[in-house]
Write a structure and sequence with these properties.
Layout (H helix, E strand, L loop, with lengths): L5 H29 L3 H16 L3 E5 L4 E10 L3 E6 L2 E6 L3 E6 L23 E2 L8
Amino acid sequence: MPDSLKPLRLLLGLRGLLSRQITAVTSTVATGAALGDPVIGLVTVELHRLRRSGELTTITTRGGHRHDRVRVAAVGRHHAVLVHPGGRILLPLRFIEALAPAPPPDTESNREDQPVPHHGSSAVVTARRSTDVD
């Protein structure tokens, strides 16, 4: 392959990659919307990103229960599999209220009244459903 075509092939490869990523995100969001709750679709997209990156995360469920410093092992249509030192958790997606980057284990930021530090590309996702009352 001539050197002059390498940048073009690289761009075409990136275009294909972006196209596949956009398709994956839009189909995942559509899946959540098809389940009757578009928030599930957004939570699912973030869970897939966390699964691919292997980042530690903190997940808050309905009722305020927190799963600190877990990794996302798998994401299905209705459930996510979380891994923590004690084993695995099968968590229904509809129970997830918030996702946040996991704080370092040796800091005071594990307290609930402090915001979770944000480093890298991790997003803090808070699910608000139409049944929530202000």
